[in-house]
Design brief:
- By secondary structure, the protein is α+β, with helices and mostly antiparallel strands.
- 17% of the residues lie in helices and 34% in strands.
- Strand 3 and strand 4 form a beta hairpin.
Length: 236
């Protein structure tokens, strides 16, 4: 008998608690769904997405703290910064009931690009087996994304890279074409004539570099540009 009374009492307490919980929730009003806010932000950003040929543009809307418990809004308003950027904050506001929050937005521009096929050490020429293709975000991989492995083959990597990291043009150097102490052909050129003579390189140089060379006959030094054929040239 005592047990039956206890069970009835617990059931009554449970029903009463549930009733007052519903009344309290109704009094407090509905809570705005974070997914609704994120959808509003994405819709506001969509028209401002840049058009980049050969890329897959994506919008990543940051998480919204569920502890905020924002009152449901009949019309959410989204304000974006005046200038577009890969990372920005969207201001989300509600006029009535009044509230405002800031939501982070991250834009991506995915492209198939050249990446490291394995862990790469610096200061060595890249070979075809060092390179592969992978998905790269052009907005974060600043410095010249490459889309053709031939653009990197034979070039010198300035810094080590982990497997899968993008190979950027800013990280590459041409190989040394002329070495210090090397005998080179010096071409002296002006609009009316061309003179070729022997010279001695006093510096290492890559194609396009200006290096110091010495004429062994006159012992005079001058600066000349390294040519792709391994010689140097000076234009007057």
């Amino acid at each position: 008998m005592m047990r039956q009374y206890s069970m009835r009492w617990l059931l009554l307490v449970g029903i009463t608690a549930a009733f007052f919980a519903k009344v309290s929730l109704a009094a407090a009003g509905a809570i705005e769904d974070p997914m609704t806010i994120k959808a509003a932000v994405k819709a506001a950003v969509q028209p401002r997405l840049p058009v980049i040929k050969g890329t897959n543009i994506g919008i990543e809307v940051g998480s919204i703290d569920p502890r905020l418990q924002l009152p449901e809004c009949p019309s959410v308003d989204v304000t974006l910064p005046p200038n577009d950027a890969a990372v920005m904050s969207a201001e989300v506001t509600c006029a009535a009931p009044a509230w405002a929050i800031y939501v982070p937005v991250h834009l991506h521009a995915w492209v198939e690009a050249v990446v490291a096929a394995t862990n790469l050490v610096p200061n060595r020429a890249l070979s075809p087996r060092d390179l592969t293709r992978g998905r790269v975000d052009m907005f974060t991989a600043t410095g010249g994304v490459l889309t053709d492995p031939r653009q990197a083959e034979g070039k010198i990597l300035r810094a080590g890279l982990p497997m899968g990291a993008p190979i950027l043009s800013s990280l590459l150097d041409l190989p040394i074409a002329v070495h210090r102490g090397q005998k080179v052909v010096l071409t002296l050129r002006d609009p009316t004539m061309t003179i070729r003579t022997a010279a001695l390189a006093l510096e290492d140089g890559r194609v396009g570099d200006s290096i110091e060379v010495r004429n062994p006959e006159t012992q005079k030094t001058l600066r000349a540009m390294v040519d792709s054929d391994g010689g140097v040239e000076l234009k007057f």
